[in-house]
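Predict structure. Chain length: 399.
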Amino acid sequence: MNPLLQRLHPYPFERLASLLADAAPPADRPHIGLSIGEPRHAPPAFVGAALCAHLERLGTYPTAAGLPSLRAACARWLERRFDLGVHAVDPETMVLPVNGTREGLFSFVQAALDAAAGGLVMMPNPFYQIYEGAALLAGAEPYYLDTTAATGFLPDLDAVPAEDWARCRVLFICSPGNPTGAVMDEGYLARVLALAEQYDFLVASDECYADIYLDEDRPPPGLLGAALRAGDTGFRRCVVFHSLSKRSSVPGLRSGFVAGDPEVMAAFRLYRTYHGCAVPEMVQLASIPAWDDDAHAAANRRLYQEKFDAVVPILSEVMSVERPEAAFYLWLAVPGDDVSFTRGLYGAENVTVLPGRYLSRDHVGGNPGAGRIRVSLVAEPAECIEAARRIARFVAAKR
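Prediction complete.
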């Protein structure tokens, strides 16, 4: 077997299951799960209808390139959402469908890296663990960029030595961030692009939370917009990842896309031809109306805004709470150890959250996730409010 498999870390939710395996939560309180970022809002009815309307495509092998109509819908959405202008994104050369961003992020790194050459794959810390696993299985070394309150929960780009930038092959960025909800402004993104130009690495921008933000007047910017406004109409070295899972509350559809530098997309398309992970055509056809419609995404976003409005005041009575700019997570500093807190909360209140250290790696100065928990506000509003009350009661009891 591939010896690199031995370098993989257990997945956060495997660790959580082990942590809680022998715990006994109170039977009189229904379980509320806020550990996984799995949207549980009702999906748009028109997506399901489109999926059912095209079930005859079960008899068709999909192509790696995907349907031209889907690529066009994705390109139009990018142009609308990030104010790129008409025809800024060529759907023929700049867009590829993927089976959700998780699959796309992982396979992209395998296609992008020369395993014999080694090098670094840089990523925020804490992070989505696919970044790390993709780097390890591609024969590269993960390089962790701590994101803490002191840095505004963004990587400190200036703290990276020049010799490390010179070894970088791919830089992962995530904006809005998981688990912090921090947003990179266009000035920050421009700095990322300047470094990529100077040191010749690819920028892989995970933007799957781009349509979930708390201020309607401040939608988070994206990497392609920053590149375009810097004069780069070809999006050189830029690759962005988007998904319907969060935007449209359809995580089971496994539908997303990758877009960016045409030269990179051509190589990635070749890889995917052999990888055999083409998106089924009925999924593609159900995805087109989802990317074409912005009203359902706005309604979905309002639900998250309402939940933050209700939950933050409850928790603020007993602990410090920083309302994020975007995404649907609270990244809470908790009293004591985050792992013990998570187990204790489950045992006392039957609420499941995720210890921050499960999303981070020990690094210079410690583990940036230690002492924090990630709370995913994915449940219905009433459940999120009830969970906030239980968390607040648990924290108050620990004083």
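Summary: DSSP finds 14 helices and twelve strands in the chain.
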